[in-house]
Amino acid sequence: MKTMLTIGLLFLGLFHNAPALANDEADVKFIDSIKALDAFDDAVVKDDVLILWPNPTTQQFLNFERIGKVLCGQHQVNGFLVVWLMDSSHYRASKEVKMLESLNCLAGES
């Protein structure tokens, strides 16, 4: 009886957490899809911020407003409120972190 109760609670826990696990998997796929682009070397979501490190050879050609509009369209699904585009060229040259652009995903919502 005790074993059946334990198994039942385990299954209940799995089904209860299934949406969170699916969301985590979707978040990983979203970040991996950004990293797969030639335009970006790295991407991570930390504390409601999507931090992007562009490829240094292409960052000067990126349209940050357009990128922000596309990515901010995903902010509710992937749990970020702001997109930071970092200066990869500056970082590689000086090891100093510098932001190129900060895009507020809530600014367009009313």
TrEMBL record:
What protein is this chain from? Uncharacterized protein
Q: What organism is this sequence from? A: Aequoribacter fuscus
